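Table 4 source record.
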Amino acid sequence: MFSRYPDNMKSPSVSLLLGVSVLPLFGLTDSGVFLNVSPNFQQFFREASVSLSCVEDGQTVDGWTVKRTKGEKTEECRAVGSGFGSINGSSCFISSLSPSDSTVYWCETSSGQKTEQININVPEGTGGDQVILEIPALPVIIGSDVTLRCKRKDNNRFRAVFFKNSVNIGNGSEGELPLSSVQQSDEGVYHCYIDEDKPTPQSRLRVRDKTPSPDLIVGAVLGSLVLLVLLLVGGLILWRKLTGSNPSSPPPDVTYADITSIQTGNRKEPSSDPDVVYSSVKAGT
């Protein structure tokens, strides 16, 4: 049976449909890139050094730049005029930290895609009386062990008082607070102080599960639903085009035959006339 739509006219419609259907899924994809801080702390003494890099699956990635805020402006590593640090291989290296380096840092692409921000603190103070809280910059995996340390620059160990969300959670012998088998409830903002020294800056301990985040799961489900709806709608549109199901148009593929009658004289019994030829009328399906 003849079709009014050749096969080469079907491919563009199907290809366009599939292309549009995939777009929502790409928009929901998590890049997996994060800002790696080495050593893995949020607080540093003055004149300490730190290396910052954009990492995915344990490897540094191209196309990402380490950035930070400076007042109301944004700076990027080793930018001319308004930059900070220096490039060491694929990492941004700050060789001598000062309180002016206390701000948020992150990785960003030229298209504006960003990682989570990490707040780095370099407290005021000079000499051995500087006190910091050694707390991980990267999220801690649920079930792992971590130790928070209230530390003086002169390395003398003292009993420290620790706070979580501004609530006293107890003393730590020799300035340490061990957290065994970390749970989601351990996430919060911590600080400490030693004897009569000033308290350290506050830093957030982040806790993550090994399983995908709820946002990523919800995004995948929504993306699948959008894809299914687009496929159904696109399939219906293609079916209507291919079948030509339009109530206002005449039915296609109807064949009409001519009827030819040959008569040589008047006869009383036309049914027995051998010179009459009948042709059939047939409607094609």
